[in-house]
Amino acid sequence: MRQNHNIYLVDGGEDDDRGGAGGISIMPSIDAIAEFQALTSNYSAEYGLSSAGTLTMAFKAGTKQFHASAWEFLRNDALDAGNYFTNAAEQSARTPLQHFGFNVSGPVLIPKLYNRDRNKTFFFSNIEWRKLVQGGLVNQTVPATSAYGGNLSAFLP
């Protein structure tokens, strides 16, 4: 089926782009997802909002103890293939994709106001950055200077 026939659920709520060509509206960080399911057929009536696939995601939640993690995906220009239409000097000017972020989770503690019971309220925060600069590449044949004056002999076989 078409992409706009799928439905995307994040923590039970719909995350569809209903105004465009369909698809997921907000792309969550991979490291913030605790559970993922792709339901393609014969699923229960609670997922009956789409005529094609149903993709469900559940985010990670806070914990009783403080936890943190940071990451960076290794993808730089030394590992990328070059563009076929550029020369060696242009290849060295490629900009790498930088993709990094962190997670932090733990109990909510507000001294003298809300720290008696560490088992009530928790937080989870995820921040992610992607830096990618891509320029366009245009190759175009330019006629010889003599062609501008009407001399088209350079184009003859």
Molecular structure report:
There is one protein chain. The protein folds into two domains: 1-59, no CATH class; 62-133, no CATH class. It contains two helices and seven strands; from the N terminus they run βββββαββα. The protein has helices at residues 88-91, 145-148; strands at 7-10, 13-14, 33-39, 54-59, 67-73, 98-107, 122-131. A hairpin with a 2-residue loop joins strand 1 (7-10) and strand 2 (13-14). The longest helix is centred in the middle third of the chain and has 4 residues, at 88-91. The two termini are 52 Å apart. The model has no long low-confidence stretch (mean pLDDT 80).
Brief overview:
By secondary structure, the chain is mostly beta strands. It folds into two domains: 1-59, no CATH class; 62-133, no CATH class. It contains two helices and seven strands.
Spatial order of the strands forming the largest sheet: 2-1-4-3
Average pLDDT level: 80
Dominant shape: elongated
Helical run tally: 2
Indicate the proportion of strand residues: 25-35%
Report the sheet with the most strands, covering strand number, pairing sense and barrel closure. Answer: 4 strands, mixed
Low-confidence stretches: none
Give the termini separation: 52 Å
Determine the structural class based on helices, strands and strand pairing.
Answer: mainly beta
SSE string: EEEEEHEEH
Number of DSSP strand runs: 7
Number of domains: 2
What Rg, in angstroms, do the CA atoms define? 26 Å
**What helical percentage do the residues reach?**
under 10%
